[in-house]
Amino acid sequence: MQAILGGVMVAVGYNYTWEHHNGGNVDGVSTEEDNLCPNGAAYWLWIAGILLLVSNSINGWAKIYKKCAERDGKIDCGEKVGMAVNSFSSGVMTIVDFAMLIWGSVVVFGAWAKWTDNFEDYKKNPEEMNFCEHTPMMTAFVILILKWVLIPVMIAITCFCACCCACCCGMFGAASNQQNQS
To answer: How far apart are CA 71 and CA 49, in angstroms?
Structure first.
């Protein structure tokens, strides 16, 4: 799911950044600026999508490496070092993903109040308005909302599962002690 999300982010971000367009589809926008989304939402989508894909690749590689290392029943010194490097890399990429989430929130939510996708309105009052095409801005907005909602939901689900496991282990442990004492 994360790989699909990263791919969508890269595709939308790339298609709405200045390097991809020569003048864009909007008349009067120059190629010197981030012409289809000068508020940075498309650039955030592009960079954060690339980093999300890299993060998922590292995490996938770490899992595959661990499974291969454990296949022979023992883990030697070299495999331990490889697993430690993979674990460290996964941790760093988790921090980077969170930093990207903060960056995106500042860029997109900060621009939301004065955002317009009508370039004519923006040209009339560029100091007051914040222009970005509809697709990159809404994509970034929806992705950020989903991520900010899913983080606490996943934490709550994890805590609930941990409590259920603790209760089950406690019940089965108590039942086992009673059987052993009888």
So the answer is: 33
3-state secondary structure of 165: helix
Sequence-ordered alpha helix ranges (H) in 71-124: 77-112, 119-124
Report pTM.
0.76
* Residue-wise DSSP of 128-166: T-EE--HHHHHHHHHHHHHHHHHHHHHHHHHHHHHHHHH
- Distance of alpha carbon 98 from alpha carbon 14, whole angstroms: 21
Chain segment 119-160, per-residue pLDDT in tens: 888 888 888 888 888 999 999 999 999 999 998 999 999 999
- 63 has pLDDT over 80: yes
**Interatomic CA distance for residues 81 and 62, integer angstroms:** 12
